[in-house]
Amino acid sequence: MAEGHPIDLSKIKTPVFIHAARKDHISPFASVYKGVGLFGGEVTFVLADSGHIAGVVNPPAANKYRYWTGANHPPKPDNWLAYATEHPGSWWPLWAEWLKEHAGTEVEPPAPVAGAPAAPGLYVRETLESIREKTGRRSTP
To answer: How far apart are CA 104 and CA 100, in angstroms?
Structure first.
C-alpha cells in the first residue's frame, strides 16, 4: 500500500537485479528471495556467501567468498540454492555486466541549470509531508 492504494509489483516490467547474502541476519536470504516472484519482468537473483555488510561490499580484488546464480526461480529458496551454480569470488563483476547490458547507450550528462542549488539539490531534503504541503494534499489517516 502507498498512500492507501494497493501496489501491484507484477505490473513492473523493468528488469530487476536482486541481491541477498546467505548469512545475513538483518535481511535473511529466504525473505529477500520472495522478491523473485513479485515482479512481472526479468528477474536476476544472486546470493552472496557472507553476512549483511560483507555480502555487499566484498570487492573483486579481495578474492574472497563466493556467490550463486540460477535462472530458475522455484517458490522455495532452498530449492533455488540446490540447483544454483556456485561461482568463486565477488558478485560485483556479474552486477557490472548486468548493469552494462541494461543501461543503454552512454550519454554526456546534462549541463548544469543556471541558478540551480548546489549538489545534492533541494529534492534530497524533500519529505512526504513537504510534498503534500506543496501539492495541497493531506496526510492519510
So the answer is: 7
* Tens-level pLDDT at each residue, the chain (141 residues): 888 889 999 999 999 999 999 999 999 999 999 999 999 999 999 999 988 888 788 788 888 889 999 999 999 999 999 999 999 999 999 999 999 999 989 899 888 888 888 777 777 888 888 888 888 876 655
87 in Cβ contact with 61 (< 8 Å): no
For 89, counting Cβ atoms within 10 Å of its Cβ (0-12 exposed, 13-18 middle, 19+ buried), the class is middle
Identify the domain containing residue 135 by its residue range: 1-141
57/90 Cα distance (integer angstroms) = 9
Asked if 85 contacts 69 with a C-beta cutoff of 8 angstroms, the reply is: yes
The dihedrals phi and psi of 88, each to the nearest 5 degrees, come to -75, 150
Instruction: Give SS3 for 35.
Output: helix
How far is residue 107's CA from residue 80's CA, in Å, rounded to a whole number? 38
Phi and psi dihedrals of 19, rounded to 5?
-115, 140
Contacts of 42 (CB under 8 A, 6+ apart): 15, 16
What is the tally of structural domains in the chain?
Answer: 1
